[in-house]
């Protein structure tokens, strides 16, 4: 239930009506002068987010011509978001150069606030509202928090024993030997233990004492990654027992992690997981199904039907790769389908 004025097209929920009205506030974080509540509904552009959203109350500083939405006054100063490797911090304006938002891919107006990368030489930038969307930011303010440099250190997936022989973290009891024989016969039962896909071309590592095998590319998968659809670090987990577990459903596609490796979030009470296929696909995605590059531009609560399988995503993230030139959308399930396959009754790929 809420209160509504049909003449002004203005609405307030019951909780906001019962709150005492704050006519003036001091908010040195964003402005040096006191800010006054603007009592009317009007289309004024917020200096912090660059939007003229008239549905949100806003405060102004008349002498400075400063305008800020009430909700924008709670924007964080420094954050870590899923779409970029480095921390980004709020800036009241941008330098005189043409920038596009790293989330929605639309142009950034340099005269208004947004977020930019804190690393020297990195020109990543994002709109204020885009950078703080719930599907890219975990809600944690990092201003004053010391950055853990060790978190981004590369952890090698294997130890090289000698030329062509490794000890992989997922199979430490035996050594693996690199097989570069491209004339081998196709065996549909010979599956990579990481991606659970058949091995019919390319190099692979095979155990010197048992049937454990890995594609060379899968053996080199990073142990820890940042993925654009999740704000936390993901860790590669090896599991190849073939036991179906409901909790092992991939968070981005419709498939269950029945076998193989997957990336999972280590945060407490966070159950985000990715197949290795979904874990290594990112943006911009150049896919044979579409002429333009595709980006992860979905907003929270936005559901788009995949233009290939025609299915409306029911996954945890509901993310799709979207074209910024047209209405094309591609789900993770279709984006990670192999471009070539081998069939046992046909000698060609």
UniProtKB/TrEMBL annotation:
Keyword hit for Repeat: yes
Domain (DC1) ranges: 29-72, 83-131, 169-219, 228-278
Keywords tagged on the record: Repeat
SUPFAM superfamilies, per database record: Cysteine-rich domain
PANTHER family listed in its UniProt record: CHP-RICH ZINC FINGER PROTEIN-LIKE-RELATED, CYSTEINE/HISTIDINE-RICH C1 DOMAIN FAMILY PROTEIN
The protein's name in its UniProt record: DC1 domain-containing protein
């Amino acid at each position: 239930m809420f209160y509504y004025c049909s003449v002004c097209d203005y609405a307030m929920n019951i909780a906001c009506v019962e709150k005492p009205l704050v006519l003036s506030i001091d908010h040195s974080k964003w402005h040096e002068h006191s800010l006054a509540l603007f009592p009317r509904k009007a289309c004024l552009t917020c200096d912090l987010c660059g939007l003229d959203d008239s549905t949100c109350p806003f405060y102004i500083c008349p002498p400075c011509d400063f305008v800020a939405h009430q909700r924008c006054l709670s924007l964080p100063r420094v954050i870590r978001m899923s779409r970029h490797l480095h921390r980004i911090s709020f800036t009241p304006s941008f330098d005189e150069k043409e920038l596009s938002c790293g989330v929605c891919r639309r142009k950034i107006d340099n005269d208004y606030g947004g977020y930019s990368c804190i690393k020297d030489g990195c020109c990543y930038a994002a709109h204020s509202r885009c950078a703080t969307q719930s599907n890219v930011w975990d809600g944690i303010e990092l201003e004053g928090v010391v950055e853990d440099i060790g978190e981004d250190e590369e952890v090698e997936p294997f130890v090289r024993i000698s030329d062509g022989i490794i000890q992989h973290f997922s199979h430490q009891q035996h050594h693996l030997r690199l097989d570069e024989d491209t004339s081998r016969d196709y065996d549909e039962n010979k599956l990579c233990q990481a991606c659970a896909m058949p091995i019919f071309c390319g190099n692979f590592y095979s155990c010197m004492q048992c049937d454990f095998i890995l594609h060379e590319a899968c053996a080199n998968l990073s142990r820890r990654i940042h993925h654009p659809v999740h704000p936390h670090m993901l860790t590669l987990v090896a599991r190849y027992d073939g036991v179906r577990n409901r909790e092992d459903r991939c968070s981005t596609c419709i498939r269950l992690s029945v076998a193989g490796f997957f990336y999972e979030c280590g945060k407490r009470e966070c159950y985000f997981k990715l197949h290795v296929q979904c874990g290594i696909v990112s943006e911009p995605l150049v896919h044979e199904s579409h002429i333009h590059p595709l980006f992860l531009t979905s907003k929270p609560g936005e559901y788009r039907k995949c233009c290939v399988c025609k299915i409306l995503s029911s996954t945890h993230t509901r993310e799709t790769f979207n074209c910024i030139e047209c209405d094309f959308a591609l789900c993770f399930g279709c984006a990670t389908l192999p471009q070539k396959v081998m069939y046992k009754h046909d000698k060609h790929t």
